[in-house]
Structure formats: structure tokens, C-alpha cells
Amino acid sequence: MAGAAPLLFTPGPLSVSPTVKEAMLRDYGSRDVDFLAVVLSVRQRLLRLARVPFGVDAPDPWTSLLLQGSGTYGVEAVISSVVPRTGGKLLVISNGAYGQRMIEIATRLDIPVVQVRVLFGREHMLSSSPREDVYF
Question: Model's pTM, two decimal places?
């Protein structure tokens, strides 16, 4: 079939623009100077976005870590490293399979979960502000 490329409806960014595909034609090694510069730039931009101090001269400096993997991998990494297992609680506003997966991850990690179920495509307003012991 000539014409437009078929759309891929599988998880992940599989259908990408021609410019992204062109950029992917160059191989970068994990020790390549250009690769390291891009990684450092992304990490620093994330820290600026989070408005936290970073760098060798910063008091109590923060850092960021880039994770390569699926969205679920990233979510599990955040839940397991950010939400305290003692005294912590996770608020999951769930409208389907992905929210359910977050609940399963937290449950496996013995992290208490407060679940708010919302129908897919529906808007939901929380009736009160989240408490301090709820992380989301």
C-alpha cells in the first residue's frame, strides 16, 4: 500500500517524525562527548524545572537521573523511591489500566494507596486539598 505509513498503536513512541528518525541515524556511544553533553544538558534542565539547587557550588545540591525504559518502569522507579514506606501514602486518580497498574505497584511495595476512580474521559475535582501525608 503506497502513501502514508501505517500508524502503530502499541505502547511507546514508535511512530515518530522524519526529523526524529533522521536524528536516530547517528549512533552515540555512552562515552561519546556529544552524548554526554546532551545528557548533562537534559539533567540540568530537569533540575531547573524542579527549581532545586544543583552544581558543585550549590548548598545541599540535587541531581537528576535519566531512566531508560517503559512508562511503567519510570512510574515504578518514582513510586518506590519517593513515597515513604513508613508513614507514606499514595493518591492514585485512576481512570483505567494505567492507574490500576500504579495501584498494583504500590501494593506490591506495601505502600498504602488512596484510590479515586474516575470514568475515562470524565473530569473530576477533589473535594478538598490533598493532605501532607498523601504523595502524588
Answer: 0.63
Only one residue has cell 502514508, namely 4
How many CB atoms sit inside 10 A of residue 111's CB? 19
Contacts for 6-12: CB closer than 8 Å, 24+ residues apart: 11/70, 11/71, 12/70
Give the bridge partners for 116, in sequence order: 93
Mean per-residue pLDDT, 128-132: 50
Q: Which of 107, 60, 51, 47 is nearest to 79 (CA)?
A: 107
- Structurally, the chain folds into a number of domains equal to 2
Last-in-domain residue among 51, 66, 81: 66
Q: Do 82 and 62 share a structural domain?
A: no
Q: Are residues 61 and 110 in the same domain?
A: no
Average pLDDT of the segment spanning 9-38: 83
Alpha carbon distance 64, 79 (integer Å): 16
Any idea how long the chain is? 136
> Torsions phi, psi of 135, nearest 5?
-105, 135
**Does a structural domain hold residue 123?**
yes
- Among residues 73, 75, 71, the alpha carbon closest in space to that of 90 is found at 75
